[in-house]
Amino acid sequence: MTHADHQRQGLPHPGAAALIRPTRPRSSDVILAIGAFLLLGPLTYGLAGGVGPTTVAAGLGAVLASVAMPGALAWRRSHPAISAIVVYSGALLHFATGTPLLPADVLIFAALYSVTVYGPRWARLAGLGGALLGCLLLAVASMTFYGSLSLADLDTESVLTGGVSFALPAALVLAVWALALVRKARVQQLESFAERALRLEIERDQQAQIATAAERARIAREMHDVVAHSLSVVISQADGGRYAAAGDPRAAGAALSTIAESGRTALADLRRILGVLREGGAGPEFVPQPGTDDLDTLLTPVRQAGLQVSLERSGTPRPVPASTGLSVYRIVQESLTNVLKHAGPGAQVRVHLGWHPTHLEVWVIDDGYGAAAPPGGGHGLSGMRERATMAGGDLTAGPGPTGGWQVHARLPVPPATASGQPPGQDPQHRLNRSADE
């Protein structure tokens, strides 16, 4: 059942029910029921047994009026509709057995108040209608019992007596009902506050889970990019150094130097990334994230690993947001890692940045004989697409028209200033022209 259904039926929200309507009788309600029984029970039973002929129905009505009606108050908040039915039934039974009015009938007002405040909409309307019907029956009884002997012999005095007998209790019924409606509004306000607190608690937990998942994904992407790239360089240098060790010790030494430098760089990056997971102590040291200006530094160890990489730019370079610059850096880094792993020996790679008025295009194209992507559908391509999407752009990757593999990313950047140079020509055209040359 939705919250709208609860409101339409006058029921409290499940999350707020414990605050505004208990599921079991409260101690205060039980004490009220016991007090009503001790105060009204004996007097009600005595009057009910002393009026009219003593019959089984009259005795049953006396017992209900003196015992059941006060006892029903114990459930006036936990089960208001049932409590009101018991009170109204006791009053109707003793009325039908010849006792129109008893001291326990004041409990009708308590039952009406409780069912209006805590009961559903149909119950509070039925409670009001039953109370007004009781006032009407009392008026009829006063005209026939205390006035004329039959309705055919009614006189002015009897009519006035009946009108007063109806008006006074009906006014009390309406006053109690109005007071209960005011209290009902307060209960609904408590329900609203409780529901809001429950909703805020749920939203807080959901936001914490989303933030945790996002942070874990970010750390996983950073670790994948750093570890995969550095290990690819290390593996490539280790393979080359092993073959060069026999004939060219100097080349083997250079390969070992590159391996050591790549290892130290990867270790420093891992320490920086894992520093955010540590608890207590001083916080991690904050360093600038790499961007488009760091691509030359990125290409150095790759070239030392034996991969022929060229970096070209077209258009007018301009500052970009840090997140966009990091996305460009990581996309190029992952693309080069895939080339080292899958393109084969002797592959040539062209990295091109094309600056346009509203976006930046990144091309990484190789002429290797193998697909520069994990055959099992690893995390590299999906990570690059996620980075491009987070920067507001898109990324495509696949075999090139003349072989090899190409990665193309299109990322939005702030527009160029009025003094900027016109954007360069299409990078794919330039790359193709360079290949022709």
Descriptive notes:
The chain is of the alpha+beta class and about 425 residues long. It folds into two domains: about 5-205, no CATH class; about 290-435, Heat Shock Protein 90 (2-Layer Sandwich), CATH 3.30.565.10. The protein is built from 13 helices and five strands. The chain has helices at about 5-10, 15-20, 25-50, 55-70, 80-95, 105-120, 120-145, 155-245, 250-275, 295-305, 320-340, 380-390, 425-435; strands spanning about 310-315, 350-355, 360-365, 395-400, 405-410. Strands 1-2-3-5-4 form a five-stranded mixed β-sheet, with helices on both faces. Strand 4 and strand 5 (about 405-410) form a beta hairpin. Helix 4 packs antiparallel against helix 5 (about 80-95), helix 6 (about 105-120) packs antiparallel against helix 7 (about 120-145) and helix 8 (about 155-245) packs antiparallel against helix 9. The two termini are about 70 Å apart. The model is unreliable at about 15-20, about 280-285 and about 420-435 (pLDDT under 50).
